[in-house]
Design goal:
The chain is α/β, with parallel strands linked by helices. It has helices at 2-19, 44-59, 73-81, 92-100, 154-164, 180-188, 204-210, 222-231, 269-281, 298-301, 310-318; strands at 27-28, 31-37, 63-68, 87-91, 114-129, 144-146, 174-176, 194-199, 215-217, 236-240, 252-263. Strands 1, 2, 3, 4, 5, 6, 7, 8, 9, 10 and 11 form an eleven-stranded mixed sheet that branches. α2 crosses α9 and α9 (269-281) crosses α11 (310-318). The protein is globular and about 55 Å long.
Length: 323
């Protein structure tokens, strides 16, 4: 883990140098600059983050949002913890682990993160080619499988489902750790048998692939998913409806998890208050960026699995969704 954190910090320092972003929050036109980590550019984190960030920057009197593509949840958490970012996207499991210092954060310990908003539902999606012969997670044994992008908790969901099928993710398959785009490209090119990611549906990377290649989503048995949820209460069973993607004309059983935005204790109460206020009161400005934005409400935004930042808590109490 220490080696991974060191590599991730170096990578982000390099990308920030290229984009000209400050490594800490500063001032921009009287506003507080907040760097917000999202994910890969074809993922839902990035698409929603860019649209929301632009809206907040336009409408807020206190916060200027600098949206940064990243390797995903864990990189966002690690860099927010040391204040090289001030906001980040993560699924609920990632911030739960980080705040409590458990699972992937057991060695490094509790991270300095606090809740800002819960956004929308993200779905686990195991993707293969339609002619692969892979119908169920049980069929993945002995296959070349991307378990998710590096530096994300997506990997934990894919491993949890495989383990529930009695498949050791390190021994019974040939595991890979690639971005959404890389994983899908290698599946369509025949270099991998399947690839896994967690994102709001429809996900751009799979939409693009399904427009030119016959793709399939891999099924999970409902009984197996129920067992996974018992051990991992931040997951819930979900069905991706038929027709979500071109050529995939059947319902797909999978798991869902909530996507969140978090910050650290060093970010000012005024900036976070204004971020939440601008994001929630101007949803109409970015609702067309992605279908998942329609899920965001003040009530659901306040429902976090970790304690809220004082600025966010102040706003939710002010509008009456928290007492």
């Amino acid at each position: 883990m220490k080696k991974i954190l060191k590599l991730l910090t170096g990578f982000m320092a390099f990308t920030m140098t290229l984009t000209g972003c400050s490594a800490s929050s500063g001032e921009s036109g009287g506003k507080e600059d907040l760097i917000m980590g999202t994910g890969g550019t074809s993922g839902t984190y990035y698409i929603v983050g860019v649209a929301m960030g632009q809206t907040v920057s336009d409408k807020s009197e206190k916060a200027n949002i600098i949206v940064q593509s990243s390797l995903g949840s864990m990189e966002n958490i690690n860099l927010t913890n040391i204040n090289e970012m001030q906001l980040g996207f993560s699924n609920a499991d990632g911030i739960y682990y980080a705040y409590n210092g458990t699972e992937v954060y057991e060695e490094s310990g509790k991270q300095d993160i606090l809740g800002v908003m819960t956004l929308y539902t993200s779905m686990g999606q195991m993707v293969t080619k339609a002619n692969s012969g892979i119908k169920s997670y049980g069929d993945l044994k002995g296959k070349k499988v991307c378990l998710g992008p590096p530096s994300t908790t997506i990997i934990e969901m894919s491993k949890a489902i495989l383990k529930a099928y009695g498949i050791d993710p390190e021994k019974d398959i040939e595991p890979y750790y690639l971005s959404f785009e890389e994983g899908i490209t290698k599946v369509t090119d025949g270099e991998l048998d399947a690839t896994f990611f967690v994102a709001g549906t429809p996900t751009a990377a799979l939409m693009n692939a399904a427009s030119t290649v016959d793709m399939a989503l891999v099924q999970a048995d409902t009984e197996v998913l129920e067992e996974v949820v018992k051990e991992h209460p931040y997951f819930s069973p979900h069905i991706i409806p038929a027709g979500t993607y071109k050529g995939i004309d059947y319902d797909t059983n999978t798991l869902k998890i909530m996507t969140t935005i978090f910050t650290n204790s060093q970010t000012s109460e005024e900036a976070i208050y204004d971020f939440v206020k601008a994001a929630l009161e101007n949803i109409d400005n970015y609702v067309n960026s992605h279908e998942v934005v329609k899920e965001i409400t003040p009530e659901s935004a306040a429902d976090m699995v970790i304690p809220l930042h004082p600025g966010a808590e102040k706003y939710y109490k002010e509008i009456g969704v928290l007492k």
